[in-house]
Amino acid sequence: MTGIVEEFLALKEESDADVLAMQVGDFYEFFADDARLVADELDLKVSEKSSHGSSYPMAGVPLSELTPYLKSLVERGYTVAVAEQRGDDDTTREITRTATPGTLLEATGADARYLVAVVREGDAYGLAAVDVTTGAFRLTEVGDERTALAELGRFGPEEVLPGPVLRGDDDFCDAVRDDADATLSVHGTEAFAPGKATHRVREQFGEGALDAVGVEPEGPGVRAAGAALDYVAETGVGVLSSLTRVQPYRADDHVSLDPTTRRNLELTETMRGDREGSLAATLDHTVTAMGARRLEAWLVRPLQRRGELERRHDCVAALADDALERDAVRETLDGAADLERLAARCTSGSADPGALKRVVDTLERLDALRERVASSPSLADSPLGDVLARVDADDAAALRETVDDALADDPGGETGIFARGYDETLDELAAEHDELVAWFDTLAERVKAESELSRVTVDRNKTDGYYLQVGHSQTDRVPDDYREVKTLKNSKRYRSAELDEKERALFRVEEERAARERELFDELRAEVAAHASLLQDAGRALAEVDALASFAEHASANRWTRPELRDDRSLDVSAGRHPVVEQAVEFVPNDARFGEGRRFLVVTGPNMSGKSTYMRQTALIVLLAQAGSFVPAESAEIGLVDGVYTRVGALDELAQGRSTFMVEMQELSNILHSATADSLVVLDEVGRGTASDDGISIAWAATEYLHNEVRAKTLFATHYHELTALADRLDGVRNVHVEVDDESYASAGSEEESGPATGRDGDVTFLRTVAEGPANRSYGIHVADLAGVPDPVVSRSRDVLERLRADEAIDVRGGSEGSEQVVFDLGSGELRTDEGATGESGGEGEDAAGDGEDDAAALDSEAAAVLDELRNTDVNNSSPLDLLQRVNEWQKRLD
Question: How many angstroms separate the CA atoms of 49 and 620, rounded?
Fold first, then answer.
């Protein structure tokens, strides 16, 4: 290995990172195994370099192009160390930072990027969440693991630092990986020590910070906060100074939304993992990245504080009622820079002159917005002015003027950053530079005038510096004091003593000017960084106005209404709609009413009729109201809830050793343990993943427990018709159903108790309307028909269902004469077989199964097993297709 590769490998070992990017001149280079890795991941070209008898792979990217490659690697889960070259030579390098999923400063767009440290002390958990890209630092303590995981899920962290105790807790770590989809990183145990962590927090936020925010020193929350700060400092991103305040919060300030509920309600992404089609995407009309972040944060962290929610509703109302003012506000916001992230870039030293120019422009927009709101008759009395007043207007104006006075109109490149008059020394160097550039610009014309040359050009490159270029036909006219420096195919290049002198002077001035500009820019950037807290306040104020304007824009365009918030447990929604589905189809509104004696709704009706949509829309209306938005309804009175819990469908999680039914029961368990009388519970089927008798029993018992013990407002959709009887037994239970128009279907023959349809000419229209009382049938075979199940299967399903309900024999079709027929008694669950029967149940004394133990003993073990399975099959609650498949299997086994 050559010396440079040896240095690379030594730095790589020192960093303990997955990948090392080492500066070598104008490139960041990757060597050895790292070169192969980045080539595979990022489609870079690998070179084979040989030196001193060794050959090694190498890949590289220009200094200015590292950021996109760095982001791609980190977003794929790699940690990347960056080694910078020190000084003008290339012999000294040191690692300046390590980019990890939670400390990637280069993040862009609307998504927050949290690093969360978690500590457990006994039953208590402390969580500290930091977004290094915006300077946000939040801290809380909760009383159990379930709540801790729910809080983690709200932040959606990129990286989690578990404390020493939690590192050995496989269940917790697996839950973080599965539910939060975060990278788990190990940080030094000493960073979590109470004394060191408390010192680190006080050092960062001030001696009185913990007392001011009411956090117990050396508690689990402070231990988590200290470890997070230590990790950020160790990774070297240089943004600690942007972490200007710690924001403690209580988990019960917000509505509890566990990972299952966030997924089922598709708050930020659909079940397929797409953002398009989610609630956040539907409501996002923001015009800034920071506004989009704020809107999403409100949706995943709804509030329980009525005062703050009504303030948001007041702002939305003012903006929604005046379209012209709303458009003006949004136009002013459009193009505003992400001040939260610019503050972090300034403190880390990575902000360029263009970034500071955007700070000026955005602070000007803040002033314009403040004036607009103050002068608007429709907005002046709203709380929007209070939102903007959180930013000190005088401090913001002073910072804006300082930066604006310093920078040129277009501060690009290494020079030309500053306006004339800002710095006397810089002005002198700029004037001298301009004079020398002018000398070179006019050199060609002077040479032509002073010599016999008619065609001569002056140019400059890195190899030859400045030179005069003359065509071969005129080289005999070149003045004697010019010396030739290069011969080309059609011309020659020359230099002179005067040109050498002017070039040296120009290079000196360029170097001095660039050095002075760098010095001044570092000072100006440090000045802006010193106002990081001001920029963050301004960014948060603009983000809030943007999110509120987005709510107003959507409410105005979609006829949403302001909800009336109440302190009781009522919920009365008139003509409610699903906020996402209504964007795609003509939607049928429905009421949802809860109150005294009505807190548990059993929802029945056919598949595909809209039960699930109805329940989800009710949950989303409550959630939107407590996020500060208007809601899709004619009117809505909403008693604030402390949590929304849902169980909708189930999927196998076989990799975690959990079947469909196990997942279903774990979700039910979480709801029964977590929900309170102030919660809203949505259950879309319970007990369907097991045998019918077990399933009905579980669903029945869960209903009783939710009604009698938890007492939460509950929507429970089920196909177990038996549960509708609970409305007569439990005071708070009521039945509702989704209506169906089935006149033509019934006339062709329906699936009523008197006998299902045997024809296929009937039609069913799902009205999507929710009415009082239970449904009288499920139309499962009709849905199978709509789904495209082959005609013979649909027809046979109807025949089987008719015979089962009529307690008639079913021909188990084996394709031979005298094939065996079975009779299933729906009342007793008994099965009878009758060989050679003609479709009617056997007569007296002709029961093929016999009437005593002798007959049972005569059966072989396989036939007895089939009979046992038949006897235990719940026909009413099994799908026709499932029944046919079972019958086919039984026939084969009996044969």
Answer: 60
Predicted TM-score (pTM) of the model is 0.81
Per-residue pLDDT for 616 more than 90?
yes
Of all residues in the chain, the percent with pLDDT exceeding 70 is 87
- 337, pLDDT greater than 90: yes
Same fold, 115-253 and 300-405+527-558: no
Examine the pLDDT at 86 and tell me if it is beyond 60: yes
Report the C-alpha gap between 354 and 407 in whole angstroms: 9
Other Cβ atoms within 10 Å of 821 Cβ, number: 24
Show the tokens assigned to 714. Answer: 């509950």
Residue 810's pLDDT is 61
pLDDT of residue 834: 54
* Cβ(225)–Cβ(197) below 8 Å: yes
Q: Tell me the backbone φ, ψ of residue 600, rounded to 5 degrees.
A: -135, 110
Take residue 9 and report the two structure tokens written for it. Answer: 């490998």
CA distance 662 to 668: 10
User: Considering only CA atoms, which of 467, 502, 499, 503 is closest in space to residue 485?
Assistant: 467
d(CA 703, CA 698): 8
**Residue 828: pLDDT band with limits 50, 70, 90:** very low
Tokens of 363: 């602070």
| pLDDT tens by residue, 152-188 | 988 989 999 999 999 988 888 888 887 777 889 999 9
Residue 668, C-beta contacts closer than 8 angstroms, at least 6 positions apart:
647, 683, 686, 698, 702
Does 3 or 102 have the greater pLDDT score?
A: 102
C-beta of residue 598 within 8 angstroms of C-beta of residue 772: no
- CATH architecture for the domain at 424-518: Orthogonal Bundle (1.10)
From 273, 360, 342, select the one nearest 539 (Cα to Cα).
342
- CATH number given to 300-405+527-558: 1.10.1420.10
- Output the six-digit token pair for 444: 């060609």
CA–CA gap between residue 529 and residue 532 (Å, rounded): 5
Tell me the CA distances in angstroms from 238 to 97, 120, 241, 528, one per residue in order.
8, 28, 8, 15
Instruction: For the chain, give every domain's residue range.
Output: 3-99, 115-253, 300-405+527-558, 424-518, 564-772, 808-894
The residue written with tokens 């459009």 in the block is 334
For 283, the 3-state DSSP assignment is helix
Beta strands in 261-336 (DSSP E): none
Task: Show Cβ contacts of residue 142 under 8 Å, excluding neighbours closer than 6 positions.
Answer: 124, 125, 127, 148, 151, 251
Q: Does domain 3-99 have CATH number 3.40.50.1700?
A: no
Q: What is the DSSP letter of 562?
A: P
Whether CATH 3.50.50.60 fits 115-253: no
- Distant-in-sequence, close-in-space partners of 553: CB < 8 Å, separation ≥ 6: 285, 319, 320, 326, 330
Lowest mean per-residue pLDDT among 95-109, 302-316, 433-447? 95-109
| 564-772 topology per CATH | Rossmann fold (3.40.50)
Tell me the C-alpha distance between 153 and 272, whole Å.
Answer: 18
Q: What confidence tens digit (pLDDT) does each residue in 242-293 have? A: 898 888 888 888 999 988 899 999 999 998 889 999 999 999 999 999 999 9
Query: In which band, very low, low, confident or very high, does the pLDDT at 112 lie, cut at 50, 70 and 90?
Result: confident
